[in-house]
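Recap slide: Sarcosine oxidase subunit gamma, sequence and predicted structure.
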Amino acid sequence: MAEPTIDAGAGPVALRTSPLAHLEARMRAAAVTGERGIRLAEWPFNTMVNLRVAPDSEAADRIEKTLGAPLPRQCGQTAVSGPHTVVWLGPDEWLVVSPAGGTSVAAELREALAGDPGSAVDVSANRTTLELSGPAARQVLEKGCPLDLHPRAFGPGRAVSTTVGPVAVLLWQVDEAPTYRLFPRSSFADYLARWLIDAMSEYRGPALP
C-alpha cells in the first residue's frame, strides 16, 4: 500500500485537526428544531491563555488596560471586551478566551506583566470548546450537571468549573437563548460530545404530558 503523502509546504496550522472533527457530522445530525430545539457544535482552535497575577498589583492594572476589561474578582464572574472574554478561575487566576487566530494574546499579556510576578501561558491546545444552544439546552445539561442552572441562580455571563456527566468542564452561559459553552480537556472531549448527543436524543420526540 502506498505511503500517505503530506504537502511539504503545509504549515502546522493547515495540518491540525480539532479534537471533535470526527464527530462533526454526528453533532450536526443530532440537532433538534422547534420548541424543544437543541444544537451542539464545536468551536475549535479558540485561543486560551491562563493568566496568573496579584489582583491589586500594578501589573494587574496594566493587564486590564491591555485587555480593555477588568479582571473579575468573584467566582462565576466574567468580563467581555471586544474579542476577549476573561473568566475567573481563582483569586489570582483567570482564563482569557479569544477567537481562533489570536496567537499574540499571551505575548501581549506577558509584555504587560513587564517582569513583575505572574504568568501568561498559552493553553489553547489543552481544551476545546463545545457550544450547546436552544430551548432545551438547560434541560440537557441538568441530566448530568450538579449545578443549579435555573435562571435565578445561573444566567448569562456566569462561568464556573463543574462536571457534566463524569467530565470536568468550565461551563459558561453566553446568553438567554440559552447558549452555553463548555470547555473540556481535549482528551475528554470525545466522551463529553457523545454523552451530550445521547442526552439530546429524547427531544426528537413529543413532550410527555
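Residues 20-43+128-203 form a domain with the Gyrase A; domain 2 fold (CATH 3.30.1360.120).
Confidence is low (pLDDT under 50) at residues 1-10.
(End of recap.)
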